[in-house]
Amino acid sequence: MDAKDLLFYLPLTVFMGLSVFFLLFWRLGLASSWHWSAGFLQTGLGFALSTSPVEPQFDQLASGILFIGAAYCYGSALMIHFGVDRMALLRRGLALSFLAPHIYLVFIDPNLRLVLFVIEMVFSSLLAIAVFKVVGRSKNVADRFLIFASFLATLDSLVRGVVFTFIYPTGEAMSEFVESAYNLSVHVTTLTICLLFPFSAITALALKSVDKHRLAAARDPMTGLLNRRGFEMAVEQLAKSGKSAGAVVVADIDHFKAINDARGHDVGDQVIIDMALRLKQIAGENTVLARFGGEEFVILLP
Predict the structure, then answer these.
(1) Reduced to 3 states, what is the DSSP secondary structure of residue 36?
(2) Cα dihedral value 132, 133, 138, 142, nearest 10
(3) Judging by DSSP bridges, how do beta strands 296-301 and 288-293 pair with one another?
(4) Mean pLDDT per 10-residue run, the chain (302 residues)?
């Protein structure tokens, strides 16, 4: 296998591997959505048609649909990760509207150059919508890097579409695709610029999972209040900011054992949950609420 063959087979191998990896990530609860895996799977299948072409028109029809499906999934994954509205109606409408001109330019009035241009414009538009929605929602460096990598992938698609349509035009015959400069460009940029996208996603998802488990370890699962460990962490944070002075209130529920004995532990649990809810309702903005165990609650009023 020479260097050119290696270049053409690498994206297929990489993206299929990424699809499996993100699927496992999702099944383990480490990824926020299955859309990551679906996006990389469709990208890998799209590259499969470049490395092992079947028939020129079929290849363009199928790969175009796969790449637009991948862009839709990437956009959904980004929006789910950052917790923003997915704008599903707009993005689905854009993805579906792509089909009519795509089929027309592949079968009715075949034109490879315009087929590729439409794919790149719709692909970049779908990603751009997602990037626009998540800008400013980053919580850490990994999130900012993911947004930046997503922007680069969007820009890469947009620039390639313009360059190979208006500056170095690709031929019109479908059979020219495999050996075209456009196809070579896709593989080169995918293995350089665009690989930042999946690896930035892995970093952001891993960090989010760590934060999620760290926060979960500091919370009482029954009431959602801080536990003893979480309370101590909150006090440390307040001390660092110079706001730890204040009052500490320790409270418990009178005759709680009698409630458990007479009504059962399910009713006792509900009483604890209701107590926590009452405390949340009356707590001030800077109040720190915690359940230390059983029916004992601690409240810090800075």
Answers:
(1) helix
(2) -60
(3) antiparallel
(4) 68 94 92 95 93 92 96 97 94 97 97 97 97 93 95 96 95 92 91 90 90 78 88 84 82 89 90 92 87 90 85
Distance CA 132, CA 150 (A): 10
Residue 94: which residues within 8 A CB-CB, separation 6 or more? Answer: 122, 125, 126, 129
Q: Are 272 and 229 in contact (CB under 8 A)?
A: no
Between the alpha carbon of residue 41 and those of residues 19, 46, 48, 71, 248, the distances in Å are 5, 9, 10, 11, 54
What is the spatial distance between Cα 68 and Cα 160, in angstroms, rounded to a whole number? Answer: 15
For residues 160 and 190, is the Cβ–Cβ distance under 8 A?
no
Largest interatomic CA distance in the chain: 84
Q: What is the value of pTM for the model shown?
A: 0.79
Report which residue type is found at 260: N
Residue 185: both structure tokens together: 């460009």
Report how far residue 39's alpha carbon sits from residue 22's, in angstroms, rounded to the nearest whole number.
10
The full 3-state SS of 265-283, as one line of letters, equals: HHHHHHHHHHHHHHHHHHC
Neighbours of 220 (CB within 10 A): 20
Tokens representing 127 are 């990603």
Is residue 158 packed enough to be buried (19+ CB in 10 Å), middle (13-18) or exposed (0-12)? middle
Q: Is 152 exposed, middle or buried (0-12, 13-18, 19+ CB in 10 A)?
A: middle
**Alpha-carbon distance 51 to 11, whole Å?**
10
Q: Which amino acid is at 3?
A: A
CA distances from 70 to 77, 145, 147 (A): 10, 20, 17
CB–CB of 18/10 below 8 Å?
A: no
Q: Which two tokens stand for residue 120?
A: 């790149």
Closest alpha carbon to 50 in 192, 188, 196, 197? 188
d(C-alpha 191, C-alpha 147), whole Å: 19
Look at strands 247-251 and 288-293 and give their pairing.
unpaired
